[in-house]
Design brief:
Radius of gyration: 20 Å
Oligomer: single chain
Largest sheet: none
Order of helices and strands: HHHHHHH
Structural class: mainly alpha
Distance between the termini: 54 Å
Strand content: under 5%
Number of domains: 1
Shape: elongated
């Protein structure tokens, strides 16, 4: 099955799309959790269960939105590409590797698109669950979440830098600057 998926990804030339969705939606998840955490930090003390519920609700919504929107759009694009290829070849390709790829790749792309923000969000809010489970952290839970969001945003930036051939550190710093600007806007708007 893995071998077939690799073939389907190669046939549809979906490597770059999957990588983009992973980073773009992972960045969305991280920035959303950062925004929520800063909002709760600026807003004062909130019960940890309220913070977890809000973050979890946003994470699930990002995940569901990512899966459904990517599936709908990728499925339409893959079906169009298959029809165009069928017309060019004057043949029905529904039962070929191209036909299978047109049906399966949208699922894979949708999973990556939805799981990236969900998983990254869940990783970022892990300190909240730890505190709720009576685990002592060296820093307040919200501050730890904020710090973890910045670290993940930095690593997403370094990944992009490696993909693009840029200096990885500069790319990581650039994404952190975006997160800092976002944090500043939230703090200004909240006051």
């Amino acid at each position: 099955m893995i071998k077939d998926l690799r073939l389907f990804i190669r046939i549809t030339r979906s490597q770059a799309i999957i990588r983009r969705y992973l980073v773009v939606n992972g960045f969305d998840g991280a920035l959303t959790m950062l925004g929520l955490a800063i909002g709760f930090r600026v807003g004062g003390q909130a019960d940890i269960s309220v913070v977890i519920s809000a973050c979890l609700g946003a994470a699930v919504a990002l995940g569901v939105s990512g899966v459904t929107s990517a599936y709908i759009s990728e499925s339409a694009e893959r079906q169009k590409a298959l029809r165009d290829l069928e017309q060019a070849m004057a043949a029905d390709l529904g039962h070929t590797a191209h036909g299978m790829a047109a049906r399966l790749v949208p699922f894979l792309v949708a999973l990556v698109n939805g799981l990236a923000p969900l998983v990254i969000s869940l990783v970022i809010i892990t300190p909240l669950w730890l505190v709720q489970s009576q685990v002592d952290l060296p820093w307040p839970a919200i501050d730890t979440v904020i710090g973890l969001a910045f670290v993940i945003i930095f690593f997403l930036g370094t990944f992009l830098g490696r993909v693009s051939g840029e200096f990885w550190l500069w790319s990581g710093i650039r994404t952190v600057c975006i997160a800092l600007i976002t944090a500043a806007i939230i703090m200004i708007v909240s006051h």
